[in-house]
Amino acid sequence: MSERDQVPFPATEYSDRLDRVRKAADDRGLDLLVLTDPKNICYLTGYDTYAFYVTQALLVPVSGEQPRLIVRGIDVTAAQWTTRLSDDQILGYGDEFVVQDAHPMAFVADVIKANGWHHLRIAVECDGGSFSPLAMRILEHELPDARFADSRRLVEWVRCIKSTRELAVMCEAGKISDHAMSVALEAIAPGVAEPAVAAAIYAALVEGVDGLAGSSPWQPYMAAGQRTNSPHCRWTDRRYRVGEPTMIELGAHRHNYAAGLSRTVFLGDPPDAYRALDKAVQRGMAAALDKLKAGYRAEDVKQAWQLATTARGVEKGSRIGYSIGLSFPDTCWVERTVSLAAGDRTVLQPHMTIHLMLAVWLDKIGHSLSETFIITEGEPESVSSLPRQLTVTHTGQPHRAGE
Amino acid sequence: MSERDQVPFPATEYSDRLDRVRKAADDRGLDLLVLTDPKNICYLTGYDTYAFYVTQALLVPVSGEQPRLIVRGIDVTAAQWTTRLSDDQILGYGDEFVVQDAHPMAFVADVIKANGWHHLRIAVECDGGSFSPLAMRILEHELPDARFADSRRLVEWVRCIKSTRELAVMCEAGKISDHAMSVALEAIAPGVAEPAVAAAIYAALVEGVDGLAGSSPWQPYMAAGQRTNSPHCRWTDRRYRVGEPTMIELGAHRHNYAAGLSRTVFLGDPPDAYRALDKAVQRGMAAALDKLKAGYRAEDVKQAWQLATTARGVEKGSRIGYSIGLSFPDTCWVERTVSLAAGDRTVLQPHMTIHLMLAVWLDKIGHSLSETFIITEGEPESVSSLPRQLTVTHTGQPHRAGE
Asked: Of A179, A299, B292, B351, which has the fewest beta carbons less than 10 angstroms from its beta carbon?
């Protein structure tokens, strides 16, 4: 086996993606894409390296000339290992661009000029694509004949519809997420320290299950007790206590594809009000799933949730889900395309993947339930097969609330 | 114990930091800082949440008015848990800024206007601070009377000199890094799968040692065999084999402070050429440490390394270290201030912390050795106490090369 066999998808997968991106760019009258978001670069080439803390760029001519990948010199080998690009498609810049006043975007501009692309209509990633105002200024200064446009998340919108192979990988990620969540639900018990559970989760996310290893995970969100009023917290030095809920939101990554999953554990008997909250969320989930199908709009799903839960006294002002997929830690696993929220009129389509995120964070307490779904014409397909109930744990043995 | 006791530093630490930042800003004639880099926000407030995939901003008036922290509405509680800011210093924007065309930077502009700060000289983080060209355009459009300047890494340069308390935390991170590396060195053996070792490393980094838990770690870099020619790779599905080197670069995080550490393991007897490479790196390290002291320039350290290693046939074109400290995964643990590289004339000062990164990545093979040091007037103090030798493992039992 050659090392390049570790590239997760066959060559045709990458050429199909490139075709779709080029078509979308051509439809908008763009000539050249300068992509700096590590997720978009990985999507189109496979390039898979945690070196995105320095400038990286993929130049994609819409005309059909070969893309060029520009990385720091010491990362050229990583591009050779993790992509099928030919060596002349990979360009490395020297460390003088890393440590001194020279900016790597000046090197990118030189590559554009050397290829005669400096007079084209060039799209750059103007918001959230690891592309800074200084980088923009440098390109504008170095390429005065170019006309610049915002990519307006062009690649993100292509990524939004997954291929069959991507869906298979996300199902594998889902299996690992289930495994890690099961480990967490069993580990949480009165007196156990939160970091011990976090460590067990990380190990499960990385080692994986059934011969499927995980890639680098995003930090699991964990909160116990009153901190469950907050969605994005980490473990503390505390130990778990009877009488408190714990929210766990985690996502295994498989070849960098994430499957978000959340569950709640209650140590000891939950108060009636908490059971009522759980029931309201469960009802809301059923209502949301009824609309999480091709043909409905993103906002319809939120509305269905809201109708089912408001009557039960639950208000969730934030969105109840979003597109999920390829994930690098510069921006978490959230894809900035579809949001299940009022005002998002995107029509759901088959092969979209949605993290349905139904956590409720109240003043003093919270409750978390989420799962990753594949949109179809009919019922949405979950990448998880864990039971959806609240887990109630006495004496270290988990029992689901319904049992 | 109230939950806010989990804020890692006392209030005076944060007020000292704010004073230093304000003084540096005042010296440059700035009136208001708009900080968007999650590390800079955490540095000045403690705010510690993996929610930086949406816009966050800390407004710091240089005059002495209270800073304002602007986060997504659902993360206001996280600001309450992880900072000592008063509730009126924390402002949350609604999810309509997350899911629709409204941009959170327009909300930030409104806060600036509401406080009467719209005519000031405002510094923004123009490169690498999670601040996009679109965010810049919005501020310029909304605040036509403001004069904008690039912060030019103002807070990063303040962060470069650590307080005594920060050094103590970095030493704790160093202990955890040592622990995780020891776990890795013992786990790597012929036939063991790489993900199993990665899982053990993550668990050790998070659970920590001696009652010190880690916070979320950055992905450990791992490469075996020919892939050791590449610095920033991850584990693969392969199993370790006799006759191959493995590089491990990891960094425990303690309260988000990282301590970078690298070692190399060789399974079986290393060839003479590999032992010679190890010896050259060891000599280079001794030479570098001789200049890693207050008063020398950053480039002096690189030059000393180069003199010692070039004669032994080792060429390393990239820098041999950099400032390290507070770390969020948007940009790894690398602080973009001091680089040990030709052309960096920064004079080293006591309480700087440097990740001395001596890995060598050759055509077909690599070797890694790195450690995090505190600069003093005399010998640099390592935050690690692991032996610096190449580890040679036979039959699963590690023996260091010198033994």
From this structure: B351
Which tokens is B24 given? 């540096």
Q: Comparing C-alpha atoms, which of A155, A152, A120 is closest to residue A139?
A: A120
- Last-in-domain residue among A91, A126, A159: A159
Q: Kind of pairing, strands B121-124 and B147-150?
A: parallel
The overall pTM is greater than 0.90: yes
State the pLDDT at residue B1: 38
What is the domain range of residue B147?
A: 3-159
- CB proximity under 8 Å: B 324-363 to A: 329-332, 334, 339, 341-344, 361
Q: What is the mean pLDDT of residues B345-363?
A: 97
Q: How many CB atoms lie within 10 A of CB B278?
A: 21
- At which residue do the structure tokens 């156990």 appear? A192
Residues B242 and B354 in one domain: yes
| CATH number for position B285 | 3.90.230.10
- Judged by CB atoms closer than 8 Å, whether chains meet at B200 and A203 is answered as yes
When divided into structural domains, chain B yields a total of 2
pLDDT above 60 (res B400):
no
Residues 64-123 of B with CB under 8 A from A: 73-75, 77-78, 80-82, 94-96, 98-100, 103
Grouping H, G, I as helix, E, B as strand and the rest as coil, residue B56 is coil
Q: Do A93 and A231 belong together in one domain? A: no
**Over the stretch A352-377, which tens digit does the pLDDT of each residue have?**
999 999 999 999 999 999 999 999 99
Query: Any residues with CB less than 8 A from the CB of A314 and at least 6 apart, and which?
Result: A277, A280, A281, A284, A360
Distance CA A335, CA A157 (A): 9
Interval A66-96: pLDDT, tens? 999 999 999 999 999 999 999 999 999 999 9
- The predicted pLDDT at position A385 comes to 98
This complex has an ipTM of 0.96
CB pairs under 8 A between A and B: 223
Give A324-358 pLDDT, tens digit per residue.
999 998 888 999 999 999 999 999 999 999 999 99
| Confidence at residue B5, expressed as pLDDT on a 0 to 100 scale | 54
Per-chain mean pLDDT for chain B: 95
Percent of chain B with pLDDT over 70: 96
Residue A46 has pLDDT above 80, yes or no: yes
Based on the fold, state whether residues B132 and B9 are members of the same structural domain. yes
Residue of A nearest to B80 (CA): A230
At residue A347, the 3 state secondary structure works out as: strand
Tell me, what's the pLDDT at A3?
52
**How many other CB atoms are there within 10 angstroms of residue A125's CB atom?**
27
* Amino acid identity, position A141: H
Residue A235 in tokens:
């473990």
**B293 — pLDDT class (breaks 50, 70, 90):** very high
Whether residues A69 and A188 share a domain: the answer is no
Stated as kind and residue range, the H or E segment containing B354 is strand B353-357
Give every CB contact of residue B263 below 8 A, 6+ residues apart in sequence: B181, B184, B185, B247, B248, B368, B369, B386, B390, B391
Residue after which a domain boundary falls, among A131, A159, A187: A159
Residue A398 scores a pLDDT above 80:
no
The verdict on A140 touching B (C-beta cutoff 8 Å) is no
Kindly identify which residue of chain B lies nearest to residue A1, measuring between CA atoms: B238
H-run or E-run covering B179: helix B164-187
Q: Distances in Å between the alpha carbon of B68 and those of B7, B111, B288?
A: 18, 9, 43
CA B132 – CA B113 distance, rounded (Å):
21
CATH code assigned at B154: 3.40.350.10
Instruction: Return the closest-CA partner of residue B257 out of B202, B208, B217, B293.
Output: B217
H helix or E strand, kind and range, residue A70: strand A68-72
